[in-house]
Protein: ABC transporter ATP-binding protein
Amino acid sequence: MAEIAFRNVSKRYGDTLAVDDASFTVEDNEFFCFFGPPLSGKSTIMRLILGLETPDSGEVLIGGRVVNAVSPAARNVAMVFQNLALFPHMTARENVAFPLVERKVPATQIERRLADVAEALHITHILHKSPAHLSGGERQRVAIARALVRDPAAYLMDDPISALDARLREETRVELKRIQRELGKTLIYVTHDQEEAMSVADRMAILEAGAIRQIGAPAEIYDRPASTYVARLLGSPVMNVLRSVRGSGVLEAAEGTIRLPDTATPADATEIGVRPEDLKVAPWMDGSSGRPARVFEVEPLGGTTVVTLAAGETRLRALMRGQPAIAPDALVSLSCDANKIHFFSQGGGALR
Ligand code: ADP
Ligand code: MG
Structure:
């Protein structure tokens, strides 16, 4: 069993509280992601799991056992390193087998392990080739195979693909997800890229200054962010968050007057949030049922278009499919399902 958990773990470096009373449980065989901006404590959490750091307080558990006093070597968790460069003078097979050869694992065992990993990564047919004769994607898969060939209870990856270009990153994260499922291993993954976190994780933990703000499945956190902080970290363009003014059953943003649909507003709502894709924008016509708004700017992105609306100083971004016939300064009708509106209290906590 490779369940990994923190119970109220804190870690301080001088005046910096790098990890602030963190508790979580990563289930066996789970793809679990820590996501947060730079310096939010992600790498420190990984080092605490590996045993390269000791908590100031709280407990680190692996497989249900407190391991605070257990050495890194005896913890049976492996960090998959950022450097995924292959040895150019070795074949793909030799590259993948290298970590096992280095540890003097018996040859028959190496063969078996190599066959399993090669199959999971779909590289069996290219194992005889040297890196120079592989495509970029193939090289990447061989490098991951080499990283995964050891068989620990859990793998840790700290921003493993951030150095790759965007296209290779997209390909690699798809591979990683499939491999993790096929190998059936606990994988703890760190990233500062929201799209990567959303796409790979079974569940994720959102960090702010060392504290875990929310844990859940990506879709669940996206749909029900616990605070404006979490809401703004996920989604592109970011969620529109406006100061709210209550009046006559109408929800109204304060600066300028962009009005959202009539809805029951919690009494203590000070901010309202709407995701760009939840706003509906249509050319204004007599009898339009939405609320009037003025188009400020239009950004065509190919498959989607970002339309920025303005009222006074207030800006509201809407994400539309395709390339709608909407131009700057046009009057449009703005609407939104009432159940897509998020309410936040003073301090940013979600209200429902
Ligand atoms: P992340 O990986 O999310 O970027 P880190 O875990 O590396 O964040 O860092 C969290 C905080 O702890 C930061 O403020 C960082 O400056 C501090 N920190 C991390 N490691 C050390 C260290 N060895 N000595 C002093 N401060 C550190
Ligand atoms: Mg880091």
Observations:
- Residues 13, 16, 18, 36, 38-44 surround adenosine-5'-diphosphate (ligand 1) (CB under 6 Å).
